[in-house]
Task: structure prediction
Amino acid sequence: MWRDRKTGPDRLGVTAPQAEPDPITASADPSGPSAIAGPSVITAASADPTSSVTRTEAADGEATGERTIVRTEGLTKVYGAGDSEVRALDGVDISVSPGEFVTVMGPSGCGKSTLLNMLGGLDTPTSGRVLVDGNDLTTLPDDRLTELRRRRIGFVFQSFNLIPVLDAVENAALPLTLDGADDADERATRWLVRVGLADRLHNRPDELSGGQQQRVAVARALSTDPALVLADEPTGNLDSKSATEIAELLQQVAAEWHRSVLMVTHDPRIASYAQRLILMNDGRVVDDLPLDGSREGPIRAMERAGLL
Result:
């Protein structure tokens, strides 16, 4: 049963953005322990040799001294067989560093969404490896994989996926509430304030604009203190102004709040807010290049790759 809540603007004891110091980013180290206490939290910093979580030097770059939040090695996903075989992913090798904002583009059916599903532990590869925050997703048992998804990966979708009967705080706090966190509302409130919704804490989704609803979704994704945020067409349902605001917010998530962000988009203008662009076609990475912030950068890259 949903726990009882007070009503009114003072039910959380938070009435202004400066309500109290924010412990969420007390440390700029994205590899630090999750804000959710408990010995079962999956983090790359865990040193428990008896843990069922598989950690390798290749997983987080310890062998080279360069830690990564995401690494795929020969990632392949095949559907069907024989004449009906479809290689949705074909030997994909990518990496994302802590606090890096990376965008993935390519034509419809190129494997972008399949890649995101693999990185989020929502699908299983045919071959290859997926390493997230030091954990090998291809070897984790189901319960540990669920734990990793719930606590170390945040998801933002094109559809906001908010629960209509819950207000902004309740929606943003939902992952924490389901995880039994006593301070779920307080932590969600801090993130809502940070994404610009201090005056919309107790509004339900039908009382919010599309851009505001997506901000709630971003706050929900960040509420568990994830190492990685996966955003699948996060601006696809928004007008141009709101889309720009969400792109700038994701930029802030990486640059100021030190979360790694991997975003799939079809919009070159939105892609230009990222630091790096990965281009895909026919299940393969065809280019991986830094972006300079210019709106023309992604378009030029797609033209060079023959994707426009």
Observations:
- The chain is about 30% helix and 20% strand.
- The chain has a mean pLDDT of 84.
- The domain at 100-111+141-304 is CATH 3.40.50.300 (Rossmann fold).
